[in-house]
Amino acid sequence: MLKIALDVAYVLMALVTGLLLLLWAASIFIPLDNLNVTVTDGTDGRQMPLTRPLLLFGLGALTAYFGGFLLILRYLRKIFRTLTLGDPFQPDNVRRLRQIGLILAVVTGGVWAAQGMVAARLAPGVMEPQGISDLLTPVFSILVVFVLAEVFREGARLRRESELTI
C-alpha cells in the first residue's frame, strides 16, 4: 500500500512540477497589463501591480519547492525498492537519506528566505517575517533524517561484517 502511495505521489508531484515549469516559461511571454496581486495575512491586505519579475520569482519559487519534493519522493521510492527486496541496509540508501536531508534543508532555507523577502519587500507591515522559532520543527525533521542515515550506515557496516564472518 505504501509503495502505491509513493508512486501516486511521485506521478502527481511530477505533473505539478512540469506544469509549473511550463507556466514559468510561458510567463516570460504573457502580457501583464493592468494586473494586480493582493498580499494579505488574512486580516489586512495590500494591492500591488503584478510585474514580470514578481511573477517569475513566484512561479520559480513554487517550481523549485515542488521540484525539491519530487526529488525526495524519487529517493524514497528507491529506498523503498531496496526494502521490498529485503536489503535496505545498503551504502546507496545512506547516500539517498543524506541527499533527502540536504534537499529538505535547502527547501526549508529557501522557503524561510523567500517568506522573509516577501514580508520585507512586498508586504511590509502586512506580513510578518518568519522567526527562528518557525524553523524548529523543520530543522528537527532534517536532523532526524541525518540520524536515520547514520543508522543505515551502521546497519550496512554490520551487514558487511556479518557477510565476512565464517
Task: Draw up the topology in text.
Elements: H1 2-26, E1 36-40, E2 45-49, H2 52-84, H3 91-122, H4 136-164
Antiparallel strand pairs: 1-2
Task: Explain what you see.
The protein is mostly helical. It has one domain. The protein has 4 helices and 2 strands. The longest helix is centred in the middle third of the chain and has 33 residues. The protein is elongated and about 75 Å long.
Distinct helical segment count: 4
**Major β-sheet profile:** 2 strands, antiparallel
* Sheet with most strands: strand arrangement: 1-2
Low-pLDDT runs = none
Global outline: elongated
Structural class: mainly alpha
**Helix percentage range:** over 70%
Q: Which tags fit this structure?
A:
2 strands; mainly alpha; 166 residues
What would a concise description of this structure say?
The chain has 166 residues and is mainly alpha-helical. The protein is built from four helices and two strands; from the N terminus they run αββααα.
